[in-house]
Predict the 3D structure of the following.
Amino acid sequence: MDWHKAYKDKIVSAEEAVTAVRSGDVVVITRHPPPRILMNALAARKDDLRDVRIRGISPAFDPGWFQPGWEESFSPVPEIFLGPVARPALDERRIDYSPVIFSLQIKPLDERPGDARKVDVILVTISAPDRNGFCSFGSDLWAKRELAKRAGTVLAQVDETFIRTYGTNYIHVSEIDCLVEHTLPALSPEEAESVIQKAVDEEARVELRRLLANLSPQRQAEVLPMLVVRPADQIREFGRARGLAEPSEDLKAIAANLSELVRDGDTIQIGIGTPSAYMPQLGVFDHRKDLGWHSEMGAVGVVHLVEKGVINGSRKTINRGKAVFTGLDGCDADEIAYAADNPLIELRDASYVVSIPTVAGHQNMVSINNALSVDLSGQINSETVFGARLYNGTGGQPELHIGAVLSKGGRAITLVRSTAVGGAVSRIVAQHEEGAVITIPRTFADIVVTEYGVARLLGKSIRERARELIAIAHPDFRSDLKGAAERLYYP
C-alpha cells in the first residue's frame, strides 16, 4: 500500500471533515491537546445538527456546547473526570455525566453492544506519519487508539510538533478517514502577553504569567486559550493539579511522612492533583533505589528520576526496565522532550495500564492518590464537595488503589490535607455529608497520610480506624472527632 498517496487523498478542510457527523451520532472528542480546529468546525454546524452526543474525559476546551441554548444540537456527557470546563454546566444540571472507569471504557463496546452506545465519530490530534505511515498520539495516549479502532469514522488533526514514544502509541494512516493539517504555533513572549491581557481581571493575569513560566511555548499555545477565560481560582487549580505552584509547608510535611512508606524496588503510581503531584519534586523518591513506574499520568520530576536512574524498573515484575504511562500530562516540557523516542519510556492503552489485574500483577505496587475527605470508618471521597456536588470524578483511582492493595507487597496510599477552606473545615470527618460519593469503599482502605502523620487502616476494626484517623487530623478538630467516634461506635 502506498500510504503517501492515501495520506494526501485524505487531507481536507476541518469544515469538510465534520460533515461526517450526522444528527443522533455519538462523537468522542479526545484531549491532550483537544483537536480545536475540528471542534470549532463541528460547533459551527449547530443549526444543522440535532441530538449529537459528545463524549470525552475532562473537556479542556468549550467551543460553545457547554453554554445554555445548545442543548437541542449537542449533548455533552463528560466521563471519568469532569474538570473545570464542564463543571459549571453540570452544576446547573444542563449536562449529564458518565461515571465509567478506564477498565470498562472499552469493554461494553466489545462484549455488550446493547449496553453502550456505539462510537460513530472520533475527533483526535495526531503527529505527522513516520516513514512507515504510522502516526503518534503524542505525549498522551489514554484510550485514543482503542476508541479510534472502534469508531465508524476517524477525523484527525495533524500536529507536526507531536512526539513519538514507544509502547502502543500509534495509529496508521490507513485507519484514518479524514486528515486536517494544523500545527499549533508556538507563542512568542509578546504573543502570550497579548492573550493574557484578555483575561478576566488583573488577578487572573498574574496567575497566568506565573503558570506559563513553567510551560513550553507549544504547551502555552495549547492551554492559554482555555485558561484566559477563567477566573484566577480556576487557573490556580490547573497549576496546583500539575504541581506547578510553590509547595506549601503542609505539602512538605506530607512528603516527609510519605517518604517513610516507600521502599527500594517499589513500583510507583501517582495521581494528578494536590498533594500527590508535588511528591516527586519534594524529594520523596530521591533516596530510593531501583524504583519502577506504572501510572496513568506523570508528575513534575518523575521523568527526571528516570533520567537519573532512580526509576529504572530493574525489579519490576511486569514490563521490567520500562517506565509505563498512559499519558505524560503533568510532566514538564523538558521531561516530555526526554520521553520522545526513548525506549526507557512506554505509553500504553489506558485499559491496560489502569486495570486492576495489571496493577495487581506488579509486586510491591504502591499507588499514591488524593482525597477530598475521609470518614472515621475509612470511606474515601475523592469526587464530591458540599455533599453531592461533583468536583472532578474518579480518574483511575479506584482501579489503581484496589490493584495496589491486591499486589503482593503492595500499598495503596491516600494523601489528604487535614483541612480545607483555609483551615475552617476538617477533611477527616466523622461521617460524610449526605450525597457524598464514596470513591474507595472502606473495605479497601489502606494507608492515609496527612501533614500530621500516617494512619494504617487495612485489617483494622472501625474503632481502631477511628483512633488512627483522629491522630492524624488537625489538632483543632481532634476533640470533636473523638466525641463523634464515641457516639457512633461505642455504647
The chain has three domains: 3-181, 189-241, 249-489.
